Amino acid sequence: MDNQKNRKAMDRRSFLRSTAAVGAGLVLAPQSFGQATASGTDDINVALLGSGAQGQVLLNACLKIPGVRFKAVCDIWTAYNQKRASRLLKKYRHEHNTYVDYQEMLDKEKDLDAVLIATPDFRHAEHTVACLKAGLHVYCEKEMSNTREEARKMVQAAKETGKLLQIGHQRRSNPRYIHCYEKLIKEAKILGRITTVNGQWNRAARPPLGSPKKYAIDQATLEKYGFKSMHQFRNWRWYKGLGGGPIVDLGSHQIDIYNWFLEASPKSVMASGGTDYYDKATHQWYDNVMAVYEYEASQQIVRAFYQTITTNSSQGYFETFMGNQGTLVISESAARGAVYREPSAPEWDKWVKAGILNEPAKPAEEEKPDTGAVLDVRETLAPPAYELAVKMDKLYHQPHLENFFDAIRGKAKLNCPADVGYETAVTVLKVNEAVEAACRLDFKPKEFKV
Ligand SMILES: NC(=O)c1ccc[n+]([C@@H]2O[C@H](COP(=O)([O-])OP(=O)(O)OC[C@H]3O[C@@H](n4cnc5c(N)ncnc54)[C@H](O)[C@@H]3O)[C@@H](O)[C@H]2O)c1
Asked: Given this structure, which CATH class describes domain 2-172?
C-alpha cells in the first residue's frame, strides 16, 4: 500500500511536470511525457523480471547506458539464472534485492521507476499488467503475448494507467533500420514502387535445451509457475499455451518490419507449416512455416513472403524489399545491408552525394567464360551493392532500451508502444491459425486495434 501511495505522489509530480512542459510549449505525445523518476533526477531505477537468456542480454545492454540503476532481479530459477544476473550486477556495483515472486517485489521495492520483462511469452500479460498497475513503466520483450486476448489486456492497461509500455521489437530503434525507412523509402523513394517483400529466419537443427541436475527446480515450483517439467521449462517456446512457435518467436521481429516499412497491416495471409522434423511430443509448434501475406500499401497490392525453418541455417536471417527501381536487403546482422539498383532506374549518384547511400563497392572484374563462344554475360552479373550510409555501433538492444529510458525522461517518444506491438502480434499470431485452417484467412481492419 505504501508503495502505491509513493507512486501516486510520483504521478502527481508527473502531472505537474507534464503541465509545465505543455506550458513551455513542449507538447509531446502521451507516451513521451516526462514522468518523474523515483530519485527526482534523470537516473532511472529498474527491476529485471526474468533473467534468462534474453534477460541477460538486456542487462548487458543496460550496463552500457548511463543513469540506469538496477534495484531488483526477479526470477524463479534461483539456482542459476537469478544467481547469474545477480552476480553480474554485484560486479558492476548495482545494489539490488532478489525475488522469486514478482508480487513480493512490487510490494517491497519502493523506489522503482521501470521493469524490464523477459519471462516466457505466456507470462507477459500477467507481469506487464501488474507492473503497469503498480505505477511502473514497462519494457516487455516480444512476443507481446502468445494470445491476442492477453496482448489486448496489455494495451488496455497501458492506456488506463498512462504508463509507458515499450514492446521489445528492437529493430524499431536500430539506426540502420530507421535510416532505411526514413531516408531510403520515405525521402528518396529509392526502391520506386515496392511490389514484393521476402524474408526469412533459418536456423540449424539443434538439440533441446537442457540443464544440469544440480540446478533443477523442484516439481512443485515448476507446476506453480505453469511448467510440467524441467524440459518444458527450458524449451517453453515449442509448447502450445506457453510460446507461439518460430513464426512468433523469430518471424515477429521481421514481419514487424514489413508492417513498419509498408506503413500498413496485411489484408490476408495463407500459410503452410508443420512439425516435420522434430518429435511432435516435444515440439508442439511447427518447426517450419512459410507464409504469404497480401498488403495494400498506398492503394497498391504488395505480396510478402516469409519463411522460418529450424532444420537448416542456409542464408540466416534478413528482409528484402523489392521495388520497380531497386531492392533493399536488410538484416539485424551488421554483415548484411545493401541496396541494388534496377538497370532501368535513374542514376543514384545524387543519393550518394546526399549521404543516403555509400558508393557501391567496385563491381568484380568481368570474367568471361573461356568457351570460345561470343557470349555477353553482363545481364546475369549481380548489380553493384550500394552500402547503407549508417552503421550500428552498439549492442543490438541498446538503442531500443535507450529510447525507453529517454521516453521516461520525457526526451523521446516510444519507438514501439503497445498499440504498435499489438498490430504485430495480431499479424503473426494469425499465421499459426492459417496453418491450422489450411486456407487463406482475411484480417478485418478492426482486428488490429484495441
Ligand atoms: N528481442 C529479442 O531479440 C529476443 C531474443 C530472445 C528472446 N526474447 C524474448 O525474451 C523472453 C525470454 O526469452 P528467453 O530466451 O530469455 O527465455 P529463457 O527461458 O531463457 O528465460 C526466461 C526466464 O524467465 C524466468 N521465469 C519463468 N517464469 C517466471 C515467473 N513466473 N516469474 C519470474 N521468472 C520467471 C525463467 O526462470 C527464466 O530465467 C521471451 O518473451 C522471448 O520471446 C527476445
From this structure: alpha beta
